[in-house]
Amino acid sequence: MYTLYMNAQLLRSSWVEIDLSAIEDNVRYFSATSGVVVMAVVKANAYGHGSLPVVETALRAGASWCGVARADEALELRSDGIKCPILVLGFTPISMTEQLISANISMAGWDIEHLKSVAVIAQRLGQPARVHLKVDTGMGRIGVSDQVALDIASYLVGTQGLLFEGLSTHYARAYEADIAPTLDQEHYFRNVVALLTDAGLCPSLVHASNSAAAMVRPDSCWDMIRLGIAMYGLDPSEDCKCREDLRPALTWKSQLSQVKHVPKGTGISYGHDYVTNGPEIIGTVSTGYADGYRRHGDKIVLIGGRRVPVVGRVCMDQFMVRLDSVPDAVVGDEVVLIGHQGQGHISAEEVAVRWNTINYDVVSSIGSRVSRTYI
Ligand SMILES: *Cc1c(COP(=O)(O)O)cnc(C)c1O
Prior knowledge:
The structure is a single chain. This protein is of the alpha/beta class. It folds into 2 domains: 20-232, Alpha-Beta Barrel (TIM Barrel); 250-374, Beta Barrel (Lyase, Ornithine Decarboxylase, Chain A, domain 1), CATH 2.40.37.10. Helices cover 31% and strands 25% of the residues. α8 (146-158) runs parallel beside α9 (180-198). The structure holds pyridoxal-5'-phosphate. Pyridoxal-5'-phosphate (PLP) binds next to α10 and β9.
């Protein structure tokens, strides 16, 4: 190990390794258990995992749709050669509509005035705008009530240029231990589906389930699940954990760029918030808050398979660790921020608790300058 890293050219700063076989297995699992179409949700650079390799893997494993949050994420996938149906789950500015229609990308819709503008653009292009009508069944975010849904559905069906492709909703509390709020939303949505079906207006693709709902309500997935966090092998919540056989795909690594023995009373990092209690071994890691490694919260990393504390303030590009428990650590030793090393393990969920946030936030905040490698 030491001799290998004597070659300074081999040192790297900060990178993530994505185990695509984990994503493949996770998608296969949900595809088999739900028995419905799987949409791979790859917004925010596939929750930090890198969109294109994740999409290619998910499609190979049986997913047939992709879901993104923004129009530009969808267009990027198209320009990278992804041919499958893509849905923009969030808001699409009118200025992006023409590009979306031309690239055959579907969009969420809920506002009649907005849809009228979309129709005008579609008619001019002579190509249909594919719309998934969003129903607000209790998320309080985007979407319409049952009666408005009926009105918009008839507008969508009766208007040239608009293709009423899907009907959807989103759960606010499916990851909680109590499923009552989810059942309420499900009940409301079921009624909307019935209302539209009775009026002869129901589109071919009805979808509601995120990862948590696909796990807790596997028999109520309608035609498609929108699989996000669990595809990456991460838990929707503490109360809604993935099965043991679903594996996390992401490991975040760095290397020791310096190791030094310092005397008692040495201040470490900005502000000297940490001062050594005795002679200590301090290591420097080249990852910082600009890589998405937060300043706040107690932090632990793995070195030599051991849990090692982060000491002093996290800087923009670097932080320091105390190496007493791994006294033979040398420059070049691998540092694991998230993942396994030897007998040690730090999950994205543990990091989230330390940072007072959720695992979604931890992985999707890993910075763009952190290189992604695929295994
Ligand atoms: C992000 C998102 C999902 C995926 O949610 P997970 O909890 O990650 O499975 C599904 N649907 C919509 C509308 C989303 O925005």
